[in-house]
Write a structure and sequence with these properties.
Elements lengths: L1 E6 L5 E5 L9 E11 L3 H9 L3 H7 L1 H14 L1 H12 L2 E3 L3 E9 L11 E5 L9 E5 L3 E3 L6 H4 L2 H14 L6 E5 L3 H12 L3 E5 L3 H9 L4 E3 L4 H11 L4 E6 L7 H9 E9 L9 H7 L2 E4 L10 H4 L14 H13 L9 E6 L3 H10 L6 E5 L15 E4 L20 E6 L3 H12 L4 E7 L3 H11 L3 E3 L2 H5 L6 E4 L6 H10 L3 E4 L7 H14 L4 E3 L7 H10 L7 E7 L12 H4 L2 H17 L5 E5 L7 E6 L5 E7 L9 E7 L2 E6 L3 E5 L4 E2 L11 H14 L7 H20 L3 E5 L2
Parallel strand pairs: 9-10, 9-12, 10-11, 12-13, 13-14, 15-16, 17-32, 18-19, 18-21, 19-20, 21-22, 22-23, 24-27
Antiparallel strand pairs: 1-2, 1-4, 3-5, 3-7, 3-16, 5-6, 6-8, 24-28, 25-26, 25-32, 26-27, 28-29, 29-30, 30-31
Helix pairs in contact: 3-4, 6-7, 6-13, 18-19, 22-24
Length: 731
């Protein structure tokens, strides 16, 4: 891969071919889409590298002090070799980018391959085609936010942390000294916080830009207009906070801050400017001088940044990663606008030339972006269509033939999980069956296991999963836990040689899905069923039979009036449990595929801004399409699920599993069911128990379960990319 580097000794800039970083546990490998040049921090580093050795020493007295200490400890020759070796090495540039997750390391469950993320860190968000980024230094990009805007995430977090250190309140008046990239963002964040802002910068163009982005007034630091604006806005008292976002060696920003700040006001240093505080001026006003450390709490803490140990939100509300996510949210909602700050977008291959133009002053810019191959506007390398892999089902040999149960011997079942769905939709059907023995229930809390044992007649209740998996008398395991644990528990049960019934979804990531199939191949055990029950509903089975075979492509519409979730529902924990559609959407995709007798080949998903409603369009090999409208804003009184299938001059209609009809040469209308809706759970369980008892095939082919799961995963990829997603089958 290619990466921008600099030799600090010679000042040489280059785009080098370097090895691709490995995807270590606790992080993700990200392919860059856009990375941002910090026209302040990075250009300062580039300029320093071009200085003489004496100039370097003058610009970094802190490093000179370290060298002198090393001389005293190790001697001149050893110190010289150490310093020259460090100077004469390539160092990376960059610390703010947006890209697509290419690989997910162990321990990561909040993003998957294909997700768009913003990344931070001068060791992990470099100007490079690929970066490994630990968990606390990336944040998912909200839907609809352009990648080039999300690339501002890190500098936005720096500005945000500076504003937080100033503690602005509604109605405050703030002074921002320095209207470069950070200063422009500080102006917008303060304005969004309800403060009125005065800006200071010697560049008239930057002053004009800041006023266009919300500043009340801006001007040159030497002009009387700035002092007049402050006096007018504060009734002569002075500003509540001063934000130092200027660089350079002048002490004027610090002196101006004291002059225009009110009594006991706050001065926040965000940039790297000279800080020779005029004692009398700061003492007489008792000014509170604060420093803002980069992106926020967690910065420079290796346990936070590298090991992923988060700070409890009750103790540290705004961490490095939470600042990043907050800034992205403000961008997505239009509260901050970075498009006017983009002065130039350069192709990544032109990085060296771009830095030279910036250094020499030929290119005057507030913000410059590198665009990587495959992004919009790159004529040589058009972006590849997004794809989600449909992994191949491989079985080791023919696999061990499952044994049929002896006549009269019940099928012994274990349940892992005993939540609402298990106790209301599955166990009542199983408890009534003579051919079933409820052997053991496993839960994480002892009381819930005891309740399930008492209510449904389990022989044993435990919290020890390993003991259950090691019990050879148990024929099948039901996995009915939270979504994030489904894939791992399924793998364990398959390896233990059990038949497995896992509630949807089978997996939340492509890696999880691949892992399940790797377990199938390793163990030779493919006895797996996912709880896609609607294809077993008697009413829908009869309607499909009445509709009959078709010869041409079909059009299917499935409206799911899902409604809103109650506050506190664990379905809202999208970071760990996936979105609502990730958890429930497999039902509707499976039903559509069953009705169309095929697996989808592509998925296109769109969502209106600001809500969870989805429109998902599935394409099938014969040209058929299925549109799933998953909505949360409908009337609660309207039926939850309605479906129409149209083909060959016929229409199949399903009304919420209460009434069905087929219109064609002959019309058929079902009678209204006398009992509650039957969505197929009882028939599905009967088919599964029969397969376990007789050793026959599972009710749904594993290939179909995999295709449905992959299509469900593709919805999220499609939402992030805004384009159809190909379901790429392994060859």
């Amino acid at each position: 891969m290619k990466q921008v580097v600099q030799n600090y000794k010679s000042g040489e800039l280059a785009v080098l071919d370097v090895p691709v970083p490995g995807c270590k546990p606790g992080g993700v490998l990200v392919r860059s889409a856009y990375s941002l040049i910090s026209t302040g921090t990075e250009l300062m580093k580039v300029s320093e590298a071009g200085m003489s050795m004496l100039g370097k020493a003058r610009s970094r007295p802190d490093q000179v002090a370290k060298v002198m200490q090393s001389v005293a400890t190790n001697g001149v020759p050893a110190t010289y070799r150490k310093v020259m070796g460090k100077l004469d090495s390539y160092t990376p540039l960059g610390y703010s980018l947006c890209g697509v997750v290419e690989q997910v390391g162990p321990g990561i469950d909040d993003v998957k391959v294909g997700d768009l993320v913003a990344c931070a860190g001068n060791e992990h968000a470099l100007h490079a085609e690929l970066n490994w980024v630990p968990k606390n230094l990336y944040a998912p990009v909200p839907e609809g936010l352009a990648p080039r805007h999300a690339a501002f995430g890190t500098v936005g977090s720096i500005a945000m942390q500076g504003v937080r250190r100033g503690e602005p309140q509604l109605g405050d008046v703030a002074l921002v000294i320095g209207l470069g990239l950070i200063g422009q963002l500080v102006v917008q964040l303060l304005t969004a916080s309800g403060a009125r802002v005065v800006g200071v910068d010697p560049d008239p163009a930057r002053c004009e830009l800041a006023e266009g982005l919300g500043a009340a007034a801006c001007g040159d630091p030497a002009s009387a207009a700035v002092a007049a604006a402050v006096a007018e806005l504060t009734d002569g008292h002075g500003v509540d906070q001063v934000y130092l976002a200027a660089g350079g060696g002048s002490n004027e920003p610090v002196e101006l801050a004291a002059k225009l700040c009110r009594d006991r006001g706050r001065v926040v240093d965000i940039g790297k400017c000279r800080l020779d505080l005029p004692w009398n001026a700061y003492y007489e006003k008792e000014l509170d001088v604060r420093f803002s450390r980069s992106y926020g709490p967690g910065r420079y803490d290796p346990e936070y940044e590298l090991e992923g140990r988060d700070y409890p939100i009750g103790y540290v509300r705004w961490t490095e990663r939470r600042n990043l996510a907050c800034f992205l949210d403000l961008l997505a909602r239009g509260r901050v606008d970075v498009e006017p700050l983009v002065s130039h977008i350069a192709d990544f291959d032109d990085a060296v030339e771009t830095y030279q133009r910036l250094k020499e002053g030929e290119l005057k810019a507030v913000a410059v972006l590198f665009r990587y191959p495959g992004q919009a506007g790159d004529a040589e390398a058009p972006a590849a269509a997004p794809a989600v892999a449909v992994p191949e089902v491989k079985r080791r040999g023919a696999g061990a033939a499952p044994l049929a149960r002896p006549a009269g011997t019940p099928v012994r079942l274990a349940f892992v999980g005993a939540g609402n769905y298990a106790t209301s939709m599955l166990l009542p059907h199983l408890a009534e069956r003579d051919a079933v023995a409820l052997s053991t229930v496993v839960t994480t809390t002892a009381l819930s296991a005891a309740n399930a044992k008492r209510k449904f007649g389990f022989a044993e209740a435990t919290t020890d999963l390993d003991a259950v998996l090691g019990d050879k008398s148990i024929d099948a395991v039901f996995v009915v836990t939270r979504h994030s644990s489904h894939a791992e528990l399924t793998r364990k049960a398959l390896l233990a040689g059990k038949a497995v019934f896992v509630e949807k979804p089978l997996a939340l990531t492509e890696d999880d899905l691949t892992g399940v199939l790797a377990t199938v191949e390793e163990s030779g055990n493919d006895r797996l069923q996912v709880g896609f029950n609607r294809r077993f509903a008697p009413l829908l089975q009869e309607a499909k039979k009445r509709f009959g075979a078709r010869t041409g492509p079909a059009s299917l519409r499935y409206l799911v009036n899902a409604g809103r979730l109650q506050h506190g529902s664990w379905y809202l924990q999208q970071g760990t449990e996936g979105s609502r559609f990730a958890g429930e959407g497999g039902h509707f995709i499976d039903t559509a595929s069953w009705l169309l007798d095929a697996d989808p080949v592509s998925v296109y998903a769109v969502a209106p801004a600001g809500n969870e409603d989805l429109q998902v369009v599935l394409h099938y090999p014969d040209g058929s399409t299925a549109t799933i409208s998953y909505v949360t804003i409908g009337a609660p009184s309207f039926p939850k699920e309605t479906l129409d299938l149209v083909a060959d001059g016929k229409v199949l209609r399903l009304d919420d599993f209460v009434r069905a009809s087929v219109h064609g040469p002959k019309k058929w209308v079902s009678s209204r069911l006398p009992k509650a809706r039957d969505k197929g759970q009882n028939a599905e369980l009967a088919a599964f128990i029969k397969a376990v008892r007789t050793g026959g095939p599972m009710p749904v082919p594993l290939e179909s379960l995999v295709a449905t799961t992959a299509a469900t995963l593709a919805v999220r990829t499609g939402l992030a990319g805004g384009a159809p997603v190909t379901l790429a089958r392994a060859r």
